[in-house]
Amino acid sequence: MIQNNVICGGMGDLAIWLRVGGKINESLNYVGGDYEMLLLKKNVTYGGLRKMIAKLLNVDESVRKMELNFETGVLFKPLYGVTDDRTLELYMHHARQESTKYFLLVTVREESVRHGKVSDKAKTEDKNFSDSYIPGLDSINEVPNVANSSNIAEDHVLPELFANSYVNEMPMEMPCPSHSQFVAPTPIPSFVDVLPNASEGNEQGTAAEDVCTTPVEPYQNVPPIPISVVEADVEGSGSGDQTCVEEGIYGEGGILGDIEEHRIFRSKKELMTCLSITAMTEKFQYKVFKSKPSFVVVRCVHTSCSWRVRAKKLVESEYWMVTKYEKKHTCPTDFKPVRRRQATSWVVGEFVKRKLINPGRVYRPRDVMDDMKRKFGVDISYSVAWRGRECAYDNLRLGTPEQSYKLLPGYLHMLMDTNPGSVVNLEVSDGNKFQYLFIAFAASIHGFSYCRPVISIDATHLKGKYIGVLFTAVCHDANQQIFPLAFGVGDSENDASWSWFLGRVKSVFGVNPALIIVSDRHRSINNAVKEVFPQAFHEICMYHLLNNLKTKFRNKTKELEQHYIRTAKTYNLQDFHVLFYTLCSAVPGVKEYLEAVGLDRWTRSHAPFRRYNIMTTNISESLNAVLVKVRELPITAFVNEIRLLCQKWFHERRTKAAGCTTMMSKDVETKLEERKDRAQAMGVICADQYTFDVVDGDRNYCVDMALWTCTCRKFQLDQLPCDHVLAVVRKTPYQAYDLCSLYYTREFWHETYRAVISLIPYISS
């Protein structure tokens, strides 16, 4: 029976979820670990509970200390310990209300928790073990297939009920320029249709001894099992995959453990996959003796062997339970069947998919054949290896490209639900086909307030079946690293798509009076910026313009490279005129070309607002390079990889900023130290308490500490002390840190990444 999302067996029994293998951090949050499940009797004791958990995890409590806690959901006591029968009763009271909220948190000291099969000897130590324990619903890296039914039109038609735009509400404490533009989200219905079970096999009559007559209670609304494979490191090198695949189907994220009585599988396909892996590992073959929609019986292929497995589908659910397992083989010792019968393409796919987690991994069918031979001693054909790899790809990539578009609305709903304040817009055409997608995480919206107002925008092509274009908007954080602001997907780079994307950027991030947008010279970008950001200043990437010059003045590429970069990057107007004259003299005709482009659009010295050190779109190009393999994925898997990348970056940089002990970010601190070293060789002549003449080699520079200016102009344009200002600081009571912009400080760096991009724990739902 099911009560309040609590899975119950007999009357008064309670099924609880465990989190194991993690640890409690300094903030009293339980991080990491896997999920398991236990069925507790109504009269279970604290000592009995500890025995069951110890057996489940193979923990010897005489050697390793085990602690039990659960999250209360209140700030003044976030964790409550389960230490005796009274506190266990208190936990069970909470779990009966909502089992998926009150996980029992298991912490094992000194050594990491290891999963393993509970030995027969351990089972006999507790006579109630088989009545109280349901082996964990082990995580499997599998996403339900979407029905390939008639309601999926050609191309990628989205469900009719899906609205054009969903925008989640922004928490008011977030310092975002445009709170008022957010509206409450509209609930999104479920559009995921799961394919019927695969062929049920033999439809023969049923013998009485092969039918499980034990009544099995329905397992409705069983919480979906977390899928860990899609949470893998986006930038992983692939070297870590070797360990996972060496463990094979029994490794973390795969189908864990052996076949056991009372073990639960979340589908018939998962059950049959585990049987096939067991058969290949133990070097035997089985055949399906009987198969019905409600039960299945498999036996060893040898007629006299007693090995057999019976499993039954749980009432009103897709879950299957092993009800009978005869483990011992009685085959003749000389019986040696060919062992490739169970090596079907989908079984091979389950085995190899851990090697395909990293989108950039090159894994050929020949590699699949070699791994199957090495692990199981099984020879498979090239076609089976190829189909197995494709099955794994579809599994990891959340289905085929067509199925992925159908999963997208539900995924976006989950994204907004787990990341409140995020802005997601999905637009479809009149024919209900995908048109535009926009995503800005709440953490990015919060962090932009602490970044310099210079945004780099760019677009790059997607490489999947339906191609398209990825639009990105990024900026620099205090440590000069890429800070992702927003992502968009459209059909192509045209006026309409760029205007749509920039319109969403404007509505989410607002308009800073000193905003600068940097991009290449694409005509549609230019038109869209004029339309959407008329008050912002549109700058051109210095290197893109250089490439245009090389194309136009093909015979002068050496002279262009020698003089153009220095001309564009100089701070001082006097230096600019000298360098620009030299450039024009070396390359006839370039003067008219660059003046037509606009000197204020490609030079730092003429820009009306501060460009700081951002003269190119390199940060956009770098992000595109990171996503080069990810862009091959279907749409939903692609969006999920972007979330994983941003989640990883935010966590790493938040940790790095929290560990910073200097006043400025690490990159800026290094830059200041280098400038201080150069400043020691400069002479300083004081005119009054505010103005100073600094001698730098054969040139003199005037520093005005009242106006915060230096005639080199680097101080006022970058908002960071130049060499000449630091020379003055060395001779006066001024402090260098007081002369730096807040955008470079440790506080702004940490605040930029303070908000968290949350994971999506139940992607299969």
Describe the structure.
With 765 residues, the chain is α+β, with helices and mostly antiparallel strands. Helix content is 34%, strand content 17%. It contains 24 helices and 26 strands. Helix 8 crosses helix 9 (382-396), helix 12 (495-509) crosses helix 13 (523-532) and helix 20 (635-658) packs antiparallel against helix 24 (746-752). The longest helix is centred in the last third of the chain and has 24 residues, at 635-658.
List keywords for this structure.
disordered N terminus; 765 residues; elongated; single chain; five-stranded mixed beta sheet; 17% strand; alpha+beta; eight-stranded mixed beta sheet
- Biggest sheet statistics: 8 strands, mixed
- Beta strand %: 15-25%
What is the terminal-to-terminal distance? 21 Å
Class inferred from helices and paired strands: alpha+beta
Which word captures the global form? elongated
How much helicity do the residues have? 25-40%
- Average pLDDT, to the nearest integer? 76
Treating each run of at least 4 consecutive H or I residues as one helix, how many helices? 24
Number of strands: 26
